Amino acid sequence: MKIKIYVFGSFFLLFSLMVTACDSSQKEDVNEYFIRLHKEITSFADKKDKISHAYFTKALDSLHRRELFKYKNSGDEKYKLSSKYIEIYYYSSIDPNTFIRQLPTVYELLKLNNNRYDYITIFCNFNLAYQFEHNSPELAMQFLDSAIETERKSEKDYELPHMYHLKGRLYYNKKDYKKAMEYFDLALKTYKKDDFLYISSMHNNFGLCYEKMKRPDLAIREANIALDILNKIQEKNYAHDYFLFVVKGDLGYYQYTVKNYPAAQVLLTETLDFYKAKQEIGRDLAKCLRRLFDLYKETGNTEKMTELIDFIYTIEPQFKSIADKIEVNEIIQSYYAYTSNPKLKEFCYKLMKLHRDQDEQDKKNFADVSDVLNKHVIGSINQKHDFEIKSQKNRNKLLFVSIFALTSIFCIIFITVRNRNRKAKELAAKEKVILEKTKKILEQNIRFQDDKITNLHLNLNLKIETEKTFLEQIKKIKKSKNTNVEETVSDLFFKINNLIQIDKRNFELINESTVENKQFVHNLSEKFPALTKHELKFCVYYKLGLSSKEISVLENITEGSARVYKNRIKTKMNIGKESDLNDYLKDIKKMG
């Protein structure tokens, strides 16, 4: 029973390990599916310089419909998650500067995933950290730490170097530049050797930190390292080209801070021309315009300042972000103040309105973010509560099933053991009855054989006595001369008849054991083929324990002849003279 329980326990453990292994393998496959989907999306983003924004949005929409179709046909939850995953990129492509539209989708995806798949958990937390980078740095840090912890536990390389990068930026925004550089360095060591774009980005970040730490010489060195890495890339895509001019813009600014104005002007002008050619209207362009304006103002190049202001006038309406509009309008305001232009007052009012709009937008964003966060918190609490209830139900079900299974197993084992013991007892009882019956039969057979032998001995003794009497009568007749012949003959006839009856009874007794003795005679003749039939007959007498005198009477020979037969038999059997032939023959009977 102990072996059965051990075998069952081993099987149950093996089954649990197999289920766990299968579940782990399935999660691994789903995570890989999301990674492939991410590569599919980013492949379009990398071709942004070759395809239109509308084509990129259309491609995302096509992927979204494809994943929904898979979900409707299969009912597999991973396709529902993948469709939500694409929606996040879709909102980003519509308006990269508006993160509010993404938040509900990210939270919904996080809720749907419910920590099932590490890639989605990491992605959502990383995305939220990125979105809250400027709006709520502390909240961003919480989301980022959660993403990093999940990735470390998964022992996979999904987004870890990028998350170190973002953590460095968060410290940079907090003006903790030494801590920022620690994480930029950690990211640099974590990136793969062929991640040239990100490696150059880390060197550029070192340069930004050194500039803030009033070390422009080191900032210039790091920017040049970043440029060298980018210039060595054989096949550049749009991201490589774009970042190349980001670094050039930063390097131009470092040259400006060390008053190397010619070098600064070349680098900043090249950067501006790239943004113009690519029609990149955003924060990097606004930053480049500010740096060029400050350079022209510092060098007193009024003509270039005017050209720059005219360009800003033409593109100002294209800026979507209020913050960027404020940036470029402040450049115009600074120019009007420098040139004492009467339009200065007008732009002051315009800037005041833009700041009010920015405040209103910040308030609205804050309210929207608070609303989303509150819904998420409430949803998380409800989800957690529902999850705990569901988990408790599942635990109760599992406990019930386990108890039921264990009870069933013990019942089966108990019933099996009880039935086995009962059958063993019944079998033992039957065997006992059979043994008792067999014992009684054997005892009866032994008593019966003893009786036969006793009767045989009695009959033999009777015959011997009768023969003695017969011989004495003959002697009397021989000695007596006046004997009544008729009476003597009659008496002798009676004596002879008695001897004949005794022989018949003895023959019957001997004949009864014939079946029993046949096997003995057969075994004896095979073992000692030299024995004659007559000698085999004598062996039967000796086996029965008859003496030579008794055998002489049965065979009508002298007692000496019987002894001669006995010695002859012992010689053929190679038995010593001192050995007892009767005991030897009995042993042969047992062996037979």
TrEMBL record:
Give a yes or no for keyword Transmembrane in this entry.
yes
Domain of life, source organism: Bacteria
Answer whether the UniProt record assigns the keyword Signal to this protein.
yes
Q: Which UniProt keywords apply?
A: Membrane, Signal, TPR repeat, Transmembrane, Transmembrane helix
Protein name per UniProt: HTH luxR-type domain-containing protein
Report TM segments.
398-417
Q: Which InterPro entries match?
A: Sig_transdc_resp-reg_C-effctor, TPR-like_helical_dom_sf, TPR_rpt, Tscrpt_reg_LuxR_C
Q: Which organism is it from?
A: Chryseobacterium kwangjuense
What Pfam families does the record point to?
A: TPR_8
| Repeat positions for TPR | 161-194
